[in-house]
Amino acid sequence: MNAAEHIFCSSLFWRCISQRMLLPWVVSAIPLGDHLLEIGAGYGAATAYLRRRAPRVTSLEYDHHAACHLQFQHDGGAGAAVCGDASQLPFADRTFSSALAVLVLHHLKSREAQDQMFVEVFRVLRPGGVFLTFEIGDSWLNRIVHVRSTFTPIAPASAFERLITAGFSGIEIDMRSGAFRLRATRPDSEELSVLSGAASCPPQ
Length: 204
Ligand SMILES: C[S@@+](CC[C@H](N)C(=O)[O-])C[C@H]1O[C@@H](n2cnc3c(N)ncnc32)[C@H](O)[C@@H]1O
Description:
- There is one protein chain.
- By secondary structure, the protein is of the alpha/beta class.
- It contains eight helices and seven strands; from the N terminus they run H-H-E-H-E-H-E-E-H-E-H-H-E-E-H.
- Helix 5 links the parallel strand 4 and strand 5 (about 125-135).
- The longest helix is centred in the N-terminal third of the chain and has 16 residues, at about 10-25.
- The protein starts with a helix and ends in a 5-residue tail after the last helix.
- It binds S-adenosylmethionine.
- S-adenosylmethionine binds near residues 1, 18, 45, 87 and 107.
């Protein structure tokens, strides 16, 4: 991230916008289950909100400084902050009931790293677990904001196919003011057997 992004993401302004407007839209009515993985948690703008919605929240962050800041916020609570990479998640298979990434995908260095993140999120989710994300689109303004930072925009239409390839189902994408929220589910075992049964049907 560049200096302006660090200032913005650690600001009270962003925390208020996140908790009052953004998160209620992204998370609304979605059961998060007992253990949520917050990916690319930054300075924790969303963390307090998420801890009110899920009994246990694990926050992953790539930047060591921000991860230390998060560790301090989690201190004493039923959660943890972990320094690590979203495309190589340091967690066992089927650990989480849900996963959330706000403004993280476009910070990954390549399309391949994004696809690897989808595969990793699928792996660490339990069957039936839900993946939620919020992303901005490609625009000249967003490119300017990310000068000297990483900006790998993800097109909503391509996200659909790429999530299917990673194994997700029930994908929903909703646009709002040039940004979008995305929801995808790791199918539970019953759904999987129906899907694989359908795939193995002989041609009529
Ligand atoms: C724009 S900030 C958003 C932070 C937070 N989600 C929020 O809404 O305030 C993007 C965050 O993703 C983190 N990030 C970038 N690449 C990452 C990776 N490979 N793994 C985990 N986090 C990453 C950055 O360090 C940064 O904190």
